[in-house]
Amino acid sequence: MTKIITITNQKGGVGKTTTTSSLSVVLKRRGYKVLVIDMDPQGNLSFCLGADNVINATIYDVLRGEIRPQFAIQHTATVDVIPSNILLSGIELEFTSAGREYLLKNVINSIKGFYDYILIDTPPALSILTVNALAASTHVIIPMVCDIFSVQGITQLVESIAKVKELVNEDLQIGGVLVNKFNKRILLNKEVKGAAELVFQDLNIPMFKTTIRNSIGVTEAQASQQDITSYDPKNGIVRDYISLITEMREKGM
Ligand SMILES: Nc1ncnc2c1ncn2[C@@H]1O[C@H](COP(=O)(O)OP(=O)(O)OP(=O)(O)O)[C@@H](O)[C@H]1O
Ligand SMILES: [Mg+2]
Asked: Phi, psi at residue 246, to the nearest 5°?
């Protein structure tokens, strides 16, 4: 069965896009068929995977029913991508009728048979775009960075995900919180991670044992529109993602 995974956190800059792109590429290198969908009007994922979002069709055209999903898929040097651009922010105002939560789910239903994994990047907000992603997904990954406000934000997010699960997608599972940009030599990082483990254990929020290290290589790769496995295949962060995939498989993801 296709695993459809939303990567989300309403907090900005925690690594949603980086997780989506790096994880997708490492999954692809391990032989899986992978599609990523950019549900963020910022279009960062489309940019860093080298997908065009100016001339070609985007997820916006697909959600509006103007383009069939298969015609919006771009086969990039690495994974397949349905890109987005700023027009996607119009969805909130354009679609007001009942059932608007399921626009993306309907799109994915017609193409999921071709893929092992579909990863969905979301904007830093719990908007209708994020709800569409959650409604279409089997699992959620929540990237976090170890700063002081992260833990609180995630407890709120998990409450919202529980509501979405109850109202629009009873099959949705939280795969786990994923600590990103982790530097074990920074005391605050270790302290916040320790505190997060205690709070999340108490609230039954799963957390991945794998952490993703802080690596400048990942930012450099994005700036040059290359994936990390091509830019610097020996970078330790590639091993972190391989370890994440092993853990995901153990969890049935
Ligand atoms: N593991 C990492 N090591 C070093 N830099 C990282 C790492 N993960 C992400 N970054 C950098 O942090 C910045 C924010 O990452 P990213 O864009 O993935 O976050 P985001 O959650 O998608 O942001 P937004 O909320 O704006 O969509 C980027 O410059 C990215 O290169
Ligand atoms: Mg992003």
From this structure: -60, -45
123 conformational bin, left if phi > 0, alpha if psi -120 to 50, beta if neither: beta
What residue owns the CA closest to ligand 1's atom 10?
Answer: 15
**Strand ranges for the chain from DSSP E:** 3-7, 34-38, 74-75, 80-82, 117-121, 139-145, 173-182, 207-213
User: What's the 198 CA to ligand 1 centre distance in angstroms?
Assistant: 25
Mutate-to-test residue for ligand 1 from 7, 10, 17, highest number of ligand atoms within 8 A of CB: 17
CATH code of residue 136: 3.40.50.300
Which residues line ion ligand 2, judged by CB < 5 Å? 16-17, 44
Give the 3-state secondary structure of residue 153. helix
| Domain that residue 67 falls in | 3-250
Which residues are within 8 A (CB) of 131 and not within 5 positions of it... i.e. 6 or more apart?
101, 164, 168
Please give the pLDDT value at position 7: 98
**Model pLDDT for residues 228-245, shown as the tens digit of each residue:** 999 999 999 999 999 999
- How far is residue 247's CA from residue 116's CA, in Å, rounded to a whole number? 16
Q: Which residues contact 162 (CB under 8 A, 6 or more apart)?
A: none
Going by CA atoms, what residue is nearest to atom 23 of ligand 1? 13
Domain tally for the chain? 1
**145 Cα: distance to centroid of ligand 1 (angstroms):** 10
